[in-house]
Amino acid sequence: EAGVTQFPSHSVIEKGQTVTLRCDPISGHDNLYWYRRVMGKEIKFLLHFVKESKQDESGMPNNRFLAERTGGTYSTLKVQPAELEDSGVYFCASSQADLGNTEAFFGQGTRLTVV
Amino acid sequence: DAKTTQPPSMDCAEGRAANLPCNHSTISGNEYVYWYRQIHSQGPQYIIHGLKNNETNEMASLIITEDRKSSTLILPHATLRDTAVYYCIVRTGLGGYQKVTFGTGTKLQVIP
After folding, report:
1. Which residues contact B18 (CB under 8 A, 6 or more apart)?
2. For residues A111 and A8, is the Cβ–Cβ distance under 8 A?
3. What is the pLDDT of residues B14-62, one digit of tens each?
4. B49, A101: Cβ pair inside 8 Å?
5. Which residue of B62, B86, B99 is the best one to mutate when testing the A interface, meaning the one whose CB has the most A CBs within 10 A?
6. In this predicted structure, what is the pLDDT of residue B5?
7. Which of A8, A24, B2, B36 could form a disulfide with B27 if both were Cys (CB 3.0 to 4.6 A apart)?
């Protein structure tokens, strides 16, 4: 069974450009989460989808970030326009349920560099 | 979710048991203890979790104190591939949603 996959693995863009990150969760996982680690900092929660609905987007840094999950399958995270401080590694995770005793599985991450 | 405290780094000889401690003194009754690890720059990898009983799986054992204020992750026979940053997390989820907060973790170095 395929794990959580993220695309691209690396992206280098100029300040002001737009970038779209994609996450394909494990098949059948209704819960999808986005996290990011900016340089030297801890991994931080961004948002949580249950199927196609945003359950919690309290970690989204500002309105330059837009996440979607049309159809409740894969998700995209768009950054527009990108700023230097957006550089970091963006992780996606999925879980079958969102109960206390259910683990989440993470993708390999997308390393975003804004120059 | 409760905060956790871990030592920033530890060394372990290859083949020996690695015991990674974690303090979570403010843990609530419905919060689980989870362990993940991150090898180099890969995504976090789930290891094990528990509520109050000790747990064991093919990767590790988790020992939770009776008062649940601390726990220890045990890798019984550490290998070089176990070199990673290990994160101890506590989270609730009863009817709620997952919002895991990763701390700084413990950087485990397995030495040949």
Report:
1. B10, B12, B73, B74, B75, B78, B82, B108, B110
2. no
3. 999 999 999 999 888 888 899 999 998 789 999 999 999 899 999 999 9
4. yes
5. B99
6. 92
7. B2
